[in-house]
Amino acid sequence: MTLANALKGRVWLVTLAALIVLVIVNAYLQSNLFTPRVLKSNLTVFLPLVLIAVGQTYVILAGDIDLSVGAIVALVNVVTVTVIAGIGTEDAAAVLAGILAGLATGVACGLFNGFLVAALRLQPIVATFATGILFSGIALRVLPTAGLPVPAPYWRTYAGGLFALPVVLWIFIAVLIAVGILGARPFLRHLTAVGGHRAAAFQTGLAVTRVRIGGYVLAALFSAVASLCLTGETASGDPLMGGSLALGSVSAVVLGGTALSGGSGSAFGSVLGALVIGMIGNVIFFAGLPFEYQTLVKGVITLAALAGGVVIARR
Amino acid sequence: MTAALTARSVQKRFGAAVALSNAALTLERGEVHALVGANGCGKSTLSKIIAGTVQRDSGDIVVNGAPLVLSSPAEAEANGISLFYQELSLIPQMSVEDNIFLGREPRNGAGFVDRKALAKKADALLQRFAPVAGRGLNSKARVSDLSPDQRQIVEIVKVLARDPDVVIFDEATAALDHRQVELFFRIIGEMKDKGVSFLFISHRLAEVFAVCDRITVMRNGESVDDFVTAETDMDTVVRAMVGDIAHDLDPAPSTDFTSASARLVVQGARGQRLQDVSFSLRPGEILGLGGLQGQGQSILLQSLFGAEPLTGGRVLIEGRPVVVRTPRAAVRHGFGYVSGDRGRDSALQGRSIFENMAIAEWVAERRRLVWPGRLQARLSEIAQSLNTKYPSLDAPIDALSGGNQQKVFIARWLATNPVVLLLDDPTKGIDLAAKADFFRLVRNLAAAGAAVLFYSSEDAELIGLCHRVLVFNSGRIVAELERAELTSFNLTGAAYGSAA
């Protein structure tokens, strides 16, 4: 029972073990995994899900859920490229203006979600499913078809390096620092309390509505940053971007040991969860499975990983 | 010097029900002030209004000479008022120290939580309870791993950590043993000397007399009396809670049951909130369960019906031990259960009256297929005896008023000929006429040989219907009142644990 005790409330340890196993398997299947170039390209692929999973964690900790994060990614992307194209110049100022517009769009989406769920008390699943459709609809209205390339400075910077390290790694490090800062703030405790026992949190005098809205704004903000990363990768606008990210982020959060019922878990765990999901895709790809089986096997492994964590945590 | 808190002519309605008609209270600085009264007298509502969780309709609340609105717990707290919650306000997944300082975390210069300071402060506060804390209560422990008494201690510490001027303790000692209570009272005494005022609500009159300086008695939403504890006695206080109204409506015929053998015997039943409950019940007998709300009466009925677990003890029907783990099993052993919470426990929402009436029989007789025509003929006979107007048996259950619904839910069991009928405060929110019909049905069932276990939060109902009443306090039976002893005075006295 000592093992089970040690794991109690630390499901992320299981996730970490799974990640290490996956890395070993991947290294065996793909001999050049540990070359800087491959590591960088892997990180580039994983980074958006890592970001969104971190944001989703804050919503789920508060006992809510946000299914609109994928649509926020699309909306932020088209707003950003449209603003940049509207300014018309290809310099850093235009890019910066686009990025700020994208981030503002994200925050607005989060406020809207939070308002519906926390202030109007709509069911989180249904409300954010609906706002997801709404945000997608707006994205299609802003940019009906994929296109509008972003200026070179944008994607060159994203794909490039800074102080001898790739920019994507700097972003990843920044995410970890942001998670650390948020974790040390009272706000995270309030979020956890609201998700753990909402009535008790209210009786304790916490501003429950404001805290829940805060969770949604954080989730949307992280999604907006993820969208900016994806934009750096694809270098163009796409109103259909990010379709599967919402449920992928929920899986990553649960894999990382955060309870869907709220009240316990950590964003660091979600980072691990997102990396595991990414690695599963890698391993399957390099195992040489026929294409038509890849999705099937991915589903089975994800299910096994989720079930494993839950079963161990339940003891 | 102004009083710490004054409440004047406070009124509050919940829909049509008047919870408070004229509540008043003066809490002096450095005083422990008891608020007592029977079920539904409004003491909890008044304390919640003072703590900001419930909004009053009218009246004044003056704190330190300034009239206040108190629209949220946060606002009450900002004015130095802290409420200890009967339903605990702890977050089970969080640690003890995080719970104690939730919403008021010490911060360092960067705005981060100062974990060291937080741990130090929490340890210092918990230290006061160290002699009685028991194993495993430390600042890092998760609240969900603690025992009920330890949680209650954490809850008390959480209140104390706020440095309040006014503390409302609503049943703060319910889960504590006597050593813990003694220490708790000593801490109250120390804080009182520093000028902190306490509003103390307890179902143990002995505690009220041990710790309180003054006592305000509430009855039917009104503050009716004020006593200085040192100048009064328990009988006087109980009499004030009961009032002068003698409401012995339609008393049940006292029947001699000693000859009949017991139908239901419960021996040493234990559960989450039950301690060593033993009694026996004979055919035709209506046995009341009395006491203040939430003392284990509902849990006992739900446990007998298999909806809550019993952790110890035996249940015998007609002398044979039975194990009931699900309501389904209970129905097949001949139990029937009518809950006061119709929406949650009884109604098949949106389904017809017919289906709502027939459901128990289907379960009891293990029917897989039914011929509605045949069943309908049988049920309509029963339905007629209900004295209920309804458009047709096919009308949805929601078309009926609460009282008429409740009659349908008891009729559900008439068709199964229950051997034991469990009534869990069944008349909550139903009108007088329906109530009278309901009681007539219960009496008929008993006369036909059913044994009835009847919990009511209204003493008048117990007096009117029961042959015998078991009075509960903190999950135990503290008194058994025979028909001849059934008076409001005795019931209230026993409920508060005064000599009975």
TrEMBL record, chain A:
Instruction: List membrane-spanning regions.
Output: 12-29, 41-61, 68-87, 93-118, 125-143, 163-184, 213-234, 240-260, 267-289, 295-313
GO molecular function per UniProt: transmembrane transporter activity
Keywords from the UniProt entry: Cell membrane, Membrane, Transmembrane, Transmembrane helix
Q: What is its main location?
A: membrane
User: Which membrane topology term applies here?
Assistant: Multi-pass membrane protein
What are its GO cellular component terms? plasma membrane
Q: Does the keyword Methyltransferase apply?
A: no
Compartments annotated for it: namely:
Cell membrane
Q: Name one Pfam family in it.
A: BPD_transp_2
Does the keyword NAD belong to this entry?
no
Name of protein: Monosaccharide ABC transporter membrane protein, CUT2 family
Automatic annotation (TrEMBL), chain B:
Alphabetical list of Pfam families matching this protein: ABC_tran
**One Gene Ontology term of the molecular function aspect:** ATP hydrolysis activity
The record's section on InterPro entries has:
AAA+_ATPase, ABC_carbohydrate_import_ATPase, ABC_transporter-like_ATP-bd, ABC_transporter-like_CS, P-loop_NTPase
Q: Identify the domain of life.
A: Bacteria
Q: Which UniProt keywords apply?
A: ATP-binding, Nucleotide-binding, Repeat, Sugar transport, Transport
Which residues belong to any copy of the ABC transporter domain?
A: 5-245, 252-499
Report the sequence similarity comment from the record: Belongs to the ABC transporter superfamily.
**Protein's name according to its UniProt entry:** Monosaccharide ABC transporter ATP-binding protein, CUT2 family
